[in-house]
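Protein entry
_____________
===
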Amino acid sequence: MPSSHQLKHVVVVGGGVAGAMAAQTLRVEGYDGELTMVGAEWHAPYHRPALSKKLLTGEVHRAGIDMAPQNELDVRTLRSARAVGLDMTSHTVEVRDGNQHRSLKFDGLVIASGAHAREWPGGPVPFGVMSLRTVDDCLAIRSQLRKHTRVVVIGGGFIGTEVAASLCSLGHKVTLLSRAGALLQTALGQEMGNCWTDLHRDHGVDVRIGVKVDGFAGSRQVKAVRLSDGSKVKADLVLIGLGVEPATDWLQGAGITVDNGVVCDATGAAEGAIGVVAAGDVARWWHPLYQQHLRIEHWDQASRQGVTAARNLLVGPGEAEEYDAVPYFWSDQYDVKLQLVGVPTGYDRVEVIEGDVRDRQFVAAYGKGGSTIAVLSTIPGRVADYRSAIAERTTFPPSLQAQPV
C-alpha cells in the first residue's frame, strides 16, 4: 500500500454522519485525489437523531434533517449502492449498484457502513409491524398513523422510549413493552432507568416492564401483540426497537478483525489491515480512558470518529493521534433532556449529586472502583461541568466546586 501522503484513491463505505464527516475532513485537510462514497440509502447524508423525534412528529420537514450537500466536496457518490465484499489483496471494494456490479480500487479505505436494525427473531410479521432506522422507515411509520392509532412499542432502549414519547405527544395511545426491569436499564442502570419509567407513565404511556413478547395476532394486518403470559395487547401499529447489529457482513474473508464491529486501535486503524480505518456504529475503538474496546452508537461519537479516522488515514500510522474524548450523548423525551457524559458500564455506585430526581432536575454520577466514570444530567448543559472529572478519573462522587473554571 502507498504511504498516506501518496493516497490517490480513497473509498468511504457509508453515507451516514461518520462517512460524511470523513469525506468532508479528507477534503478540508487537503486530500485532492479521487474520493468515492458508497451509500446504501438513496438519500444524501442526514441527521439520524431527528427520526425518532422531530421528523416523526412532523415538527421538521424531510429536507430539514439533511446535512451539508456533498457535491461541494468533489465526491463521487454512489447512492442506493451496497458494499458486498472487500479484497485486501487487490485493494478493491466490491459494490452492488442497482443491477450493476462495480469493483472500486482504493489505496485508502474508510469503513463507515453503520448498523442495521435487528429484525423480529420469530420470522415473518404481519403488516403494521415496523422498525425505525432510516428516513424511509420514519416516513413509512408516519403514513400509518391515524387519529386514534393504538401503538405498541417493543423495546425499552433509547429508540423505543423516544418513539413512545413522540407518538404519545401526538395523542396516540401508546403501550411500551420492555424485558428489563426498567426503561433504559441497559444504558443507565435500573436506579436511573426507574426515573424514565416513571416519566413515561406520568405522561400516560402504558409501560410494562419485565415482560416477554411471544408474537403477533393478525394474518395480514397486525391486531395485537401476544405476551408470554398468554395476554394480548391490542395494536394498530407495532414498532420494534430491539437494537442494532453492525453492518460487517461484507467484510467476511477480508482478514479484518470483526467482533461486535470492526475492531480498531485508538486511532481508528482497523485491526488486520493497512490503510483501512473505521468509524461510527460499525466501529469498535480502543478507548484509552476506559481501557477497553467500545462500540458507541451515538451521533456525536460517529461524527468525531469520522473526523479523526480521516485525519489519521491521511497522516499515516506514524503520526496518527489517539481519540480519547469522553463520550457524550443526549435524548429528548417530553420536556426532559437527558444528557450523559462518559460510559456507565460496570459501575458499582450511583449517586444523585445535584437536585432532586422527583423534580426531574438533577445530576447523577456513576462510580467504579472509587473513580468517576460517567455523569447523567437533566439540567441542560450541566454535564459539561463534569467532563474533566471523568477524564481525570476524579474520586467518586465528584464535586462541582472542584471543576476548573
In short: The chain has three domains: 9-116+244-315, 119-240, 335-392. The domain at 9-116+244-315 is CATH 3.50.50.60 (FAD/NAD(P)-binding domain). The mean pLDDT is 93.
